[in-house]
């Protein structure tokens, strides 16, 4: 991505001035997945902040959705923000949802895309043949509607993670934690304005997952992007930004 700042245990990217939008990346996602958002929203009067989540660096006991949500709250406190907008993709969406459940007083609004929290197409099944590059490549391509979005750089990164024993153990620990922290019973009690932006062709968290989030969250709006997989902000950045900005204006956030 661009230049990141390091302060104590926190490493993050920051751009713009205004209401903070805290962006949480997914398990295999880096800060660069949100390049489109990071370029667009600072021009619209928002401060975009993307922390590097400690997915592979915390102890195994703190490698779970709840501990990551507390880490995010501590990061917001460290940055001196009162209330924030939060955007999360995949595991990042699940962490954002759990943070909203635990610390609603910190939240102005929530945007989720391809979020876990209700359904997992068992992340663990992605790793039985971890030495097989072509298998990993197919799995990475499945994340997107257009397989060409899964560049060699992205596939190499996933392959490296799958072949790092400690990262593999932590990935499986997180997958189990995501299933354990299912949020179906929590969502009806969460009244923070929530924007759900979903790819119509998402194979990881299929469209019915978005419908279920929308039906369970009492204050939610659902938007679809066609010919789009699990990472809408990467595959269709302009459309993603337009929908998110439209929702922020409509919600007066």
Automatic annotation (TrEMBL):
GO terms for molecular function: hydrolase activity. Transmembrane segments: none annotated. It comes from the Bacteria. Keywords: Hydrolase. Residues 20-115, 176-237 form the AB hydrolase-1 domain. The keyword Hydrolase applies. It holds the Pfam family Abhydrolase_1. InterPro entries: AB_hydrolase_1, AB_hydrolase_fold, AB_hydrolase_sf. This is Alpha/beta hydrolase.
């Amino acid at each position: 991505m661009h230049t990141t700042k390091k302060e104590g245990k926190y490493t993050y990217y920051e751009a713009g001035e205004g209401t903070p939008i805290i962006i949480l990346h997914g398990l295999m996602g880096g800060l660069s997945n949100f390049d489109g958002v990071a370029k667009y929203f600072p021009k619209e009067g928002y401060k975009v902040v993307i922390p590097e989540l400690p997915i592979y660096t915390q102890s195994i006991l703190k490698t779970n959705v709840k501990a990551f949500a507390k880490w995010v709250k501590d990061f917001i406190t460290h940055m001196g923000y009162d209330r924030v907008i939060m955007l999360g993709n995949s595991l990042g969406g699940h962490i954002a949802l759990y943070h909203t459940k635990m610390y609603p007083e910190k939240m102005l609004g929530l945007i989720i895309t391809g979020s876990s929290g209700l359904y997992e197409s068992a992340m663990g099944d992605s790793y039985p043949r971890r030495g097989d590059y072509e298998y990993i490549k197919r799995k990475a391509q499945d994340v997107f509607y257009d397989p060409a979005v899964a560049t060699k750089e992205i596939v190499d990164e996933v392959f490296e993670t799958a072949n790092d024993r400690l990262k593999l153990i932590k990935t499986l620990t997180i997958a189990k934690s995501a299933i354990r922290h299912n949020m179906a019973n929590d969502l009806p009690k969460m009244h923070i304005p929530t924007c759900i932006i979903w790819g119509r062709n998402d194979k990881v968290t299929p469209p019915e997952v978005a419908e279920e989030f929308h039906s369970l969250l009492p204050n939610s709006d659902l938007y679809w992007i066609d010919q789009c997989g699990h990472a809408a902000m990467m595959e269709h950045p302009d459309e993603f930004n337009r929908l998110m900005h439209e929702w922020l204006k409509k919600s007066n956030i």
